[in-house]
Structures are given as C-alpha cells and as structure tokens.
Amino acid sequence: MSVAALARESGVLTEPLLRALRALAAFGIFRLDRDGNVAHTTRSLLLRPDAPHSLYYSARFWTATGSWRAWEVLEIALRGGVPHEAAWGTDRFSYLRDNPTEGRLFDAFMAHFPDDRHDAIAGSYDFSDTDVIVDVGGGNGETLRRIIARHPGVKGILFDRADVVASVSPDMLAKGRITAQAGSFFESLPSEADRYALVRVLHDWPDEDAQRILQCCRAAMRDGGRLLVVEALMPLDPSQGRQTEYLIDMQMMAMFGRARERTEAEYTFLLAEAGFELMKVIPTASSVSILEAVPC
C-alpha cells in the first residue's frame, strides 16, 4: 500500500505520515520501499489486535494520557510523592473510574497480555478439587474464564469495583458459571469459596495496603481454603531478571508511588504478616508465578 493511499484512508497528510513511518521503519517497525509503499514486518504485525501475542492493547495502554503524564513528573516519587496523583490530582483507580474509555482500555490490556498468562495460570495449577474460586480484583474475568473452560466443575465469582463489574457483559459470564459481584477488597469478600485468586493485584499497592487486602482474604476464607497470589517474582540480581519487569516496576512507581514488583521473599513476608503460610511457588509458562498459601 502506498503511503499516500494510507494517508487518504486515515485522513492525515502524506508528508508527516511518511516521516513517522520512516522513523518506525528504522527500528524494523513497518517496511518502506523506494516507491513509497509501506508493508508490515514481523514487528509491526504485533500492533494488530488479531495477531498472535498482540501488543495492540499494551501499546495503547502504555501510551495513553493517563499513564504517560505521570512519567513527566516521575522524580516526585524520589521524595515520597505519587506521580500520578501529582499529574492528575487523583489516584490511579479513581482516574480510571472517572475516565471510562481509559478504564476499559486498562481492562482490555489486562485481558490480552502477550505472554498468554491467563492460559498459563489456568494450566499450571490443579483446580480439580476446587468448587468455587473468587477472582479478587479480576477485571473483566479473563483468567477466571480460562480456568472454568479447563475445569467444568468449577464455578467462579468475579469480584471488582462497581464500574468494572458494570462493564462485564452477560456473554462474559460463561453461561452462568461466573457471578459478577461489586465491592471493595479492602472491606469484605464473598465467603462461599474454597479458592481465592489475586492475579497481579498486590503489585499495585504498597505493603500496608497489600496486607489489608490479604487480611480481607484471610477473613473470608473457610476451613480448607487456599489463596493463590499470582505475580511476577523479581530476582535479587537484575541481570537475571526480565528487562520488562523492571520497567513495569517503574510504571508502578509512576502510577502508585510506593507500590512495586517484589521478590519471593517479600511476598512470603507479606503473606506471613497477614496470617498465611506460603506452601509452594508454581512457575508458569508466562512471566508470572503462582504462590499458593494457606491460613495459619
């Protein structure tokens, strides 16, 4: 396709578009020939929403105004401040509630991780003896749907903020096997489950708030219940870790100040302080691990 034709279809000027495409092509994102035609490369194909391991939602989320502006004042975090609150005058989750377009983009980003973590979680843990699982702060329920698809006897409760639950359509509830419930994981959780999952929740919160969430899970759990904390575990030596995890840690600092990615030892300490014993750490085929804990 010619750059001129692409500009016409996009409603933009040809020359600025050509210059932008040239810059991207220099990094292997799109290919330009001498005749002014543009074509996909393996990298640019990742920006399509229908591509395997697509980065479409990731790219849109990371470059959204709500994320990017906080990075402009990142140095505030070095003095104990919260960059997002300095940039927007409100906390991150209130911003997403009040800006539903970005809020739903966040939910889509959580549901479309390019590392296929939802399938990896569902396939790495033995849910065969599970009756009901609560996906605490579960967004639009993608992890829960993958678990239920693999385990016909399991039912799920999707628990999240009211604005998030309101965006979950009936066709996302697995023909009645999932119940959506609104509430705050700082206050109370459903008590009729035998598994509670926190999938990439705790890294959004500083230690004291993470412990409050864990304590709320502990209060809701019945005898025999188990908690599944799903997080990326940061190695003590950065040279041994994934580069992207350290960038995500910086994103946590930009969005939440003292929230962060943690090591296995740090999660073990958080769990113990909230009344849990870590039983085992289960690696998955993605970047996250499952920390299984029981009340003690």
UniProtKB/TrEMBL annotation:
SUPFAM superfamilies noted in UniProt: S-adenosyl-L-methionine-dependent methyltransferases (SSF53335)
Methyltransferase recorded as keyword: yes
Pfam family of the protein (one): Methyltransf_2
Keywords linked to the UniProt accession: Methyltransferase, S-adenosyl-L-methionine, Transferase
Residues of the active site: 203 (proton acceptor)
Domain of life: Bacteria
GO molecular function, one term: O-methyltransferase activity
Residue stretches making up the O-methyltransferase C-terminal domain: 79-277
InterPro entries on file: COMT-like, COMT_C, SAM-dependent_MTases_sf, WH-like_DNA-bd_sf
Xref: PROSITE patterns: SAM_OMT_II (PS51683)
Any one of the GO BP annotations: methylation
The protein, known as: O-methyltransferase
Lineage: Bacteria, Pseudomonadati, Pseudomonadota, Alphaproteobacteria, Hyphomicrobiales
